[in-house]
Amino acid sequence: MQMSARVELRDVGHGFTSQAMLFRHLNAVLEPAHVYALTGPSGSGKSTLLSIIAGWLKPMEGAAERVDCEDVHWVLQNPYGVARRTALDHVALPFIAQGEPHEIARAHAAELLDVFGLVKLAYRQFMELSGGEAQRLMLARGVASAPQLLLVDEPTAQLDLHAARTVNERLHALSMSGAIVVVATHDPNTRDACTDIIDLREYQRW
Q: Which of 58, 138, 161, 206 gives 20 to 30 Å between its CA and that of 124?
């Protein structure tokens, strides 16, 4: 019987040297359909832990194992896209890449844009979107990509309060993908929009 996708963190620790550790003794099992808030002060190792979870960085201590979880998608802190492509195009492309006919892919993309409050901007070019709109678009694209592991780095950083509030209101929609979702954030409102919390401050006391 095949085991469900998950990420196992077993006594994980990492730092610049063994005398300058960012965090230690982190144990967790990350499961699908959960949105994990990865919190802690600046410099506590949130982005480092994202890289470890993704399998792109080997921890100095312990082990991080992805079980039946090889497809990883990362939504970066600063959203990027193709300047003259529409919002609809950005979200439809992953569906097309999965083999859907263009018409069906665009219909599915429109549904996701609606979930993230962007349906009225479907035909707006990426370069015409505000920072908050672009961030929500990249979150919608992340869901459309149907990864097993979806990593989101500081989704509300450098956004104004209104844009940040909108992103946080839509954050729960990430769980609809059925992916393991991990969101690195310093924003308490973003933290509260997630289903689970991993606070790195708890792993800096040893």
A: 161
Which among 117, 132, 139 has a CA at the least distance from the CA of 162? 132
User: From edge to edge, which strands make up the β-sheet containing 34-39?
Assistant: 72-75, 149-153, 180-184, 34-39, 196-199
Element (H, E) at 19: none
CA dist list (Å): 90 to 32, 78, 79, 119, 201:
24, 16, 12, 13, 37
Q: Answer whether 0.90 is exceeded by the pTM.
A: no
State pLDDT tens for residues 131-145: 888 988 998 999 899
Provide φ and ψ at 107, rounded to 5°: -65, -45
Instruction: Report pLDDT digits (tens) over 66-124.
Output: 999 989 999 988 888 999 999 999 999 999 999 999 999 999 999 999 988 899 999 99
Q: Tokens 């929009």 — which residue?
A: 193
Q: Do residues 32 and 179 make contact, with C-beta atoms less than 8 angstroms apart?
A: yes
- Do the Cβ atoms of 61 and 13 come closer than 8 Å? yes
List the beta bridge partners of residue 197: 37
